[in-house]
Amino acid sequence: xxxxxxxxxxxxxxxxxxxxxxxxxxxxxxxxxxxxxxxxxxxxxxxxxxxxxxxxxxxxxxxxxxxxxxxxxxxxxxxxxxxxxxxxxxxxxxxxxxxxxxxxxxxxxxxxxxxxxxxxxxxxxxxxxxxxxxxxxxxxxxxxxxxxxxxxxxxxxxxxxxxxxxxxxxxxxxxxxxxxxxxxxxxxxxxxxxxxxxxxxxxxxxxxxxxxxxxxxxxxxxxxxxxxxxxxxxxxxxxxxxxxxxxxxxxxxxxxxxxxxxxxxxxxxxxxxxxxxxxxxxxxxxxxxxxxxxxxxxxxxxxxxxxxxxxxxxxxxxxxxxxxxxxxxxxxxxxxxxxxxxxxxxxxxxxxxxxxxxxxxxxxxxxxxxxxxxxxxxxxxxxxxxxxxxxxxxxxxxxxxxxxxxxxxxxxxxxxxxxxxxxxxxxxxxxxxxxxxxxxxxxxxxxxxxxxxxxxxxxxxx
Length: 462
Description:
- By secondary structure, the protein is of the alpha/beta class.
- It has helices at 20-31, 47-57, 82-90, 103-107, 109-115, 129-138, 176-183, 203-207, 216-230, 246-258, 276-284, 299-304, 311-324, 341-354, 372-379, 403-412, 429-436; strands at residues 2-7, 35-40, 62-66, 98-101, 120-122, 149-151, 186-188, 191-192, 212-213, 234-237, 264-269, 287-295, 327-334, 358-363, 365-366, 394-395, 418-419.
């Protein structure tokens, strides 16, 4: 079959993100004998024209659409992507069946299948099942009954079957060099699954709670391919938590060192699973920055959010980074269950004490169905069972309510190293473009130490 792979993600803030999910599908589809073409709308100035130009030279038998995010997950400046996606899909409708997939789609698959008026959807990992879907369609049969596959107009579906062996993505259909040039890094995954219990997190829903680790030699081969084949200078490991299990992270870093690969990289790490030996090996392997999903500096809020670590872990992990000269950022989520003025100030106080390169603060927590936060939001009357969640809905603690934004703005503006995207503190499209002018490789927040003063664009002027 002639198969068109479509990445509809157009968000480039804070940087464009390579369509890794579609790249993982490309290999198995090509191996099954399908002829592939890709349309990536991320850099398209005229997306409609790009689509029409593609369709004029390639007539697909199936259109596979990857949805990475439903919205920008930022309050109070929430922005949904769904209407733009729906309009985009109109151009394919009628010419070939549309198959939806991707992490964003898998969060609310039945609702999105109806909203976007697509014929089929694949929940979870598609590498194994999507070739089977296309095989059925090629024979004129319905893919009903395949694991994780939804058919519009039919009720229910079997649960997806997680892959036991995660392969290597095939990036050749996409603009790897442009993502690296404009985004400052390439993305790479070493594992899937999350055994932790953060109350808002969708990773356990999307990838399961059982960790599935990739083969270390294959990861090293992928890094070499990026470095030698694409000229990649910097990598971001997209794992939910890079440093767990600790032994696996150490083994991977040691393999990178032994392979003589010269590449910078950063990752999202858990402050409860970082040791001097591990961080030292990470630095030896090229790591120059880490991001901590700390979420709060309040012991009570860490417990309320279901975190696996405490305040002392945040302190000690930060000290290790300072000792080894590693740039580090803490991500803080304000407004979760039990948040008060006092707990907000505790978070600011701990960040002052730990002295990170940057703090990225988010106000409000996006509510997704199936998470513990969804149940808590129902209990607290923030939503009802009838509340539609396709459009962004956020949990804001009733104990702080409307005062949250004013308090966070007031405190963040006292500190040079804070970024609050929802309140546009040290974060705007123009500012991000200017920061990219420094040709930084890796996360933009590493440049926070160069800022001369805080910058804020008032909400009324946005």
